Amino acid sequence: MTSRISLLPDHVANQIAAGEVIQRPASVVKELLENAVDAKASKIQLIIKDAGKTLIQVVDNGSGMNRLDIRLAFERHATSKINLAKDLFTLNTKGFRGEALASIAAISNIETHTRTTSDEVSHCIRIEGSKIKNQSLSTKPQGTSVAVKSLFFNIPARRNFLKSDVIELRHIIDEFQRVALAHPEIKLLFFNNGSELFDLEPCNSRKRIISIFGSKWNNQLVPAEESTSLTDLKGFVVKPEFSKKTRGQQFFFVNNRFIKSPFLHHAVSSAFEGLLRPGYHPGYFLYLSIDPKKIDINIHPTKTEIKFEEEQSIYAILRSAVKHSLGVFQVMPTLDFDQNRDLDVPYRFKEKTPLTPPIEVDSSFNPFKNPSTLPKTNKREKEGLLPNIHLNPDREYIKNNNLINVPQSTRFFQLFSKYIVCPLQTSMLLIDQRRAHQRVLYERFLASITEKTSLSQQLLFPLEVELNPKQIEEYHQNKEILLALGFQMELKGKKTLEIVGSPENCPHSKIESVIETLLSGENSGQSIEHLSQADQIAKTLAKTLSIKSGEVLTPIEQQVLLDNFFGCKETSVSPFNKSIFISLEKFEIEKKLN
Predict the structure, then answer these.
(1) How confident is the model at residue 329 (pLDDT cuts 50, 70, 90)?
(2) Whole-angstrom distance, CA of residue 564 vs CA of residue 542
(3) Which CATH number fits domain 376-523+532-594: 3.30.1370.100, 3.90.550.10, 3.40.50.970, 3.30.930.10?
(4) What's the predicted TM-score (pTM) here?
């Protein structure tokens, strides 16, 4: 009888195992950096070419391996970290399964040099697709150098699924930063295509955060610390006013291992209750030290998930520590984000006797000569809330499909500081002001990029913005698009961006925040592959500069917005595919009243 079941060849089994551990070049970076940390290295270099597709090399000055160990290291389930099953619950190392190097070797060409303190020369091994091609002596210093070349060369389908170099490099930077934050005592260097991205000297946790993300972070961090019999907690939380809508500032480390935990994130979020604007997420860099016997890190191949024995207690300790820290440093919920700030009475005027306002009369005003006189623009309009939009009060507002005509005599008004209501003869339009403005700005920015017709406004004084290495890479990748939008800028030195001009649609007060948003790379992972980078930047810029829900608009601002909105090519949905308006027919309203 012929058996239908057979054992897989070793090289096929290794490729399958590699699919669980090695998903992209960043996965290789993570494993090699963690191996270097486990080798007690005090200096680690990461060298990348073509976002890791051509070369990923990690060089350390750690303990190294001898002639026998270097050969065994690339066998499956070969490890120096554990001997018995119970050792899984006393782990203090990054790796322990013995799968990483075998998985990497199955899908790439590897050249490794290693030397221990007792060896006079180093040992070299070359492997291609799990097959050892050569083992020899070499002359390298103490430590280990692992060069991974031609990743996924024997799995074309997996290589084709990789994203662009820009996106893959972002993932690599993320993994590098996680290791750097977990081990500030180690000197780390990062070279990409021959240029230096990071040169991190040994320091404390706070200085390491600042050296990675920029000096401005020094004023954004609030220390958090707690010591109990269950866990020791140290680290920092980001002040609420510097929180973001995207989740790029959340770092949990358990026993110096980066983890992802929605459960613990909820604990921190609950401590920030009343301090964050709706839709914003707290930022934090939190380090927990827990007895290895009370956690299980062997629940996922990438080891980024942990199971806690006493998770409810960890939750309570974390929430309490963060809440206490915010209280000690006087970060209190003093802002009511639903309140109209324009109605607040300045503190210095609360005890002051009000003065009789002066009366001004325009003797030249004659309403019969100019019946369509419009109110003067206010300061916000001059600063560019709805900039460069020319009014034409004599024309009708016409929707593209010609199904809706809004006559000039229509009386529109703002509802809930969020919607603009346009009564028509037999219906009523309810327009979301934020989404409508996003559509206006998006089409304008996209046209500026594709047609290169954007006008730039010169700044009276140049604006300097400090960039971190990740933002510098974004700048080089998107420089042409930013120039087409109307930004005039130049990189001075290693990390200072000098801006001398900006798009005329961008108020001066928002230039720095706009630049940081465009260069953050936080939205790139969400973009669909076939959409161009220009389209994504136009969307991000429109979202950043659009008026917000809750902003009170004057009648002229409402008219300007509607005038331009109904002139858009697309009026049904926002750039993010959200409905911009709804139409309520007269019979629907009457039906609800019956």
Answers:
(1) confident
(2) 14
(3) 3.30.1370.100
(4) 0.74
